[in-house]
């Protein structure tokens, strides 16, 4: 069958950003603190902001040779020269999307890369990136490139930036790098953010980060083959506390119009957690008389009901999740290619979808690979001129 594919978790990392993202937009008052690219003695290049080194820039050859400890989508797709900054070059990115037969990308920006001790500079850096994303990058193909705004990881600057974005319009989703957010979500300082998200209709996402500073998981094991397996633990570990907080402290129930996307954390672990939350909800209400003189129980709805109405999850390939669609419901799963990260299935999205969803109802597949995203983000799939060809249902059996 043919159907438009909307990938709901794709990337534009620091290493792929054009060198002028911040220098063209930040006030001259910041001088050499403005984030910029510096070439090193060995010919490679890094992003620098004041005394902070943010990370490498791919616009210069890395000088690396020999076997790689980790492959990206580019490696698997036969692209050896990344100095063209394909992810950050709209024309080249669209070529890569066409090659994968994917119509749309939700474009997540650099994860935990904006680092400075100056709070105002930090705020200005987030704002400058968000403006560049929506005014310079996504405008090359606004129906296909859907920019995910970045929010600072602390309440007051996050609220200020969200207010600015809501006022300017055109922003469909904003991301909190939840692994480094402080304080925890039950803190009342976050409440105005949830209010504003609900009022504006902007979707909130939490995206996983693989940086060791998020959990210190790799410090002891760095350089060992076993460290590769720690990602399985770390992805869930980053999300578990904030995910449970959404229900335990009534955040979602108080804000029924708030939509949350949990991105790249996997979705197979979620059903058990929600099932356990439902059980704890029952245990709470089993003892309702205990709470009568203590203000009562504010948790009126079952967590699974709240979850079904307000939470979405992205995945690349998950045979497990595809057998849990009854739990997730027909509208809450969002397919993703994760371009161009190591976990990405680019440029083999059609093949991977066909292999993992062949047994499913074709109408449900259409929803998961594009329809759900179109509904959540208000996208018009009738404009799609690029469509995926999938072997699903009878077509898969015939093949």
Automatic annotation (TrEMBL):
Any Pfam family the entry gives: Amidohydro_2
A GO cellular component annotation in the UniProt record: cytoplasm
Gene3D superfamilies: Metal-dependent hydrolases
Ranges where the Amidohydrolase-related domain occurs: 123-379
GO biological process annotation, one example: secondary metabolic process
The entry's keywords: Hydrolase, Lyase
Name used for this protein in its record: Amidohydrolase family protein
Organism, as annotated: Altericroceibacterium endophyticum
């Amino acid at each position: 069958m043919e159907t438009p594919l909307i990938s709901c978790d794709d990337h534009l990392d620091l290493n792929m950003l054009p060198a002028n993202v911040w220098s063209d937009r930040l006030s001259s008052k910041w001088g050499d603190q403005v984030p910029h690219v510096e070439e090193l003695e060995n010919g490679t290049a890094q992003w620098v902001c004041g005394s902070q080194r943010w990370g490498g820039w791919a616009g210069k050859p890395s000088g690396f040779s020999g076997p790689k400890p980790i492959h990206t989508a580019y490696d698997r797709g036969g692209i050896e020269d990344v100095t063209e900054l394909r992810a950050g070059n709209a024309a080249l990115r669209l070529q890569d999307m066409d090659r994968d037969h994917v119509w749309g990308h939700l474009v997540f920006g650099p994860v935990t890369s904006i680092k400075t001790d100056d709070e105002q500079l930090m705020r200005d850096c987030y704002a400058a990136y968000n403006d560049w994303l929506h005014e310079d990058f996504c405008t090359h193909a606004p129906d296909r490139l859907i920019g995910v705004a970045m929010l600072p990881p602390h309440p007051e600057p996050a609220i200020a930036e969200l207010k600015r974005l809501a006022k300017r319009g055109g922003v469909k989703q904003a991301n909190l790098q939840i692994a480094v957010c402080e304080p925890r979500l039950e803190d009342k300082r976050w409440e105005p953010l949830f209010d504003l998200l609900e009022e504006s209709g902007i979707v909130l996402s939490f995206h996983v980060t693989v940086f060791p500073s998020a959990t210190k998981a790799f410090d002891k094991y760095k350089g060992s083959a076993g460290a590769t397996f720690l990602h399985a633990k770390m992805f869930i570990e980053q999300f578990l506390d904030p995910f449970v907080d959404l229900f335990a402290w009534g955040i979602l129930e108080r804000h029924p119009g708030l939509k949350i996307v949990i991105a790249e954390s996997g979705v197979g672990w979620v059903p058990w957690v929600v099932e356990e939350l439902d059980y704890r909800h029952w245990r709470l209400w089993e003892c309702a008389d205990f709470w009568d003189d203590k203000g009562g129980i504010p948790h009126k709805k079952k967590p699974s009901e709240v979850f079904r109405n307000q939470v979405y999850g992205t995945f690349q390939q998950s045979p497990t999740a595809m057998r849990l669609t009854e739990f997730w419901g027909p509208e809450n799963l969002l397919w993703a290619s994760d371009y161009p990260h190591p976990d990405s299935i680019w440029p083999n999205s059609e093949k991977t979808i066909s292999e993992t969803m062949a047994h499913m109802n074709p109408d449900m597949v259409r929803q998961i690979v594009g329809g759900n995203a179109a509904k959540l983000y208000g996208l018009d799939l009738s404009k799609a001129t690029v469509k995926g060809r999938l072997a699903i249902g009878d077509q898969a059996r015939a093949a």
